[in-house]
Amino acid sequence: MAALDEPLKKILGGTTAKVLAEHLDLHTVGDLLHHYPRRYAERGELTRLSDLPLDEHVTVVAQVADSRVLKFNGGRGQRLEVTLTDGSGRLRLVFFGKGIHKPHKDLLPGRRAMFAGKVSVFHHKLQLAHPDYELLDGDAEGGADAVSAFAGQLLPIYPACQQMASWKISKAVDAVLPSARDAVDPLPGALRDGRELVPLTEALLKIHRPASKADIAAARDRLKWDEAFVLQVALARRRLAETQLPAVARTSTTGGILDAFDAKLPFTLTDGQLKVSREIFDDLATEHPMHRLLQGEVGSGKAQPLDALVLTPRGFSPMGEMAVGTEVVVPGGELAVVDGVFPQGEREVWRLVLSDGSAVECDDEHLWIVGEGDAEEKVLTTRELRRDLNDPGGRPRWSIAAAVPVDLDDGGDRPLDPYLLGRELAADRGPAARVPGAYRNAPLKDRLAVLRGLLETGSGHAGSGPAGAPAVFRAAHRPLADDLAWLVRSLGGRARLSAVGEGPYDVDVALPEEGGAGFRRTIHAIEYVGSKPVQCISVRHPCHAYVTDHFTVTHNTMVALRAMLGVVDSGGQAAMLAPTEVLAQQHHRSITEMMGELAEGGMLGGAEQGTKVVLLTGSMGAAARRQALLDLVTGEAGIVVGTHALIEDKVQFHDLGLVVVDEQHRFGVEQRDALRGKGKQTPHLLVMTATPIPRTVAMTVFGDLETSVLDQLPAGRSPIATHVVPAKDKPHFLARAWERVREEVAAGHQGYVVCPRIGDEEDAPKGAKKAAGSKGAADQAGSPEDAEEKRPPLAVLDIAGQLAEGPLAGLRVAVLHGRMAPDDKDDVMRRFAAGELDVLVATTVIEVGVNVPNATAMVIMDADRFGVSQLHQLRGRVGRGAAPGLCLLVSEMPEASPARARLAAVAATLDGFELSRIDLEQRREGDVLGQAQSGVRSSLRMLAVIEDEEVIAAAREEATALVTADPELTGYPELRIALSALLDEDREQYLDKG
Question: Other C-beta atoms within 10 Å of 754: how many?
Answer without folding.
Answer: 29
